[in-house]
């Protein structure tokens, strides 16, 4: 029996409800469990009102309450909630880099990048250095994403069950989209023309922005996946049991 306790539904019927949710495109076990709980309660209430209903008849009536799009809206709401949870986790770890003693390393990175830009000064290679660093950041993130794909997919499953937050963590929460940010910045700077790269204000702004991107990348690609087991166990009571 799964982790929902019912007074009237049999173990087999509970398993049928899990199968029913999977057949209707609910792939994550945490959302399946929520829907099974909801459907089972609804079926039991219907049986209280009309004991002659079969399990399938009661299920069909309950499913119709979700409307013509079925579980689509429920899936969308769950994804929205888990996405909010993911970005809160990211922000939690990001803030740690602005507290002692990590703040010292953050400042060192930013000052180091600023010093490199200032040292390059009026050099004709400064523009290429800036654009090249952005391209390198993009390519590194993309290569890492592709090289770790199989390993991440294996870790995403917990005894054959997929949890939505695990999916986000091991797929970097859509963070691969952020990897295109350096590319877009490089394209924009390259197309802008002019001597924007000579200003010390640009050096400071670029150093801070690049430091922020490096920290976000480190957290998304390294910290969150390494701490995924604990984060998932804290989020899902059933995760340790899966």
From TrEMBL:
Keywords: Membrane, Transmembrane, Transmembrane helix. The chain crosses the membrane at residues 100-117, 129-147, 168-189, 201-221. This is Uncharacterized protein. It comes from Flagellimonas lutaonensis.
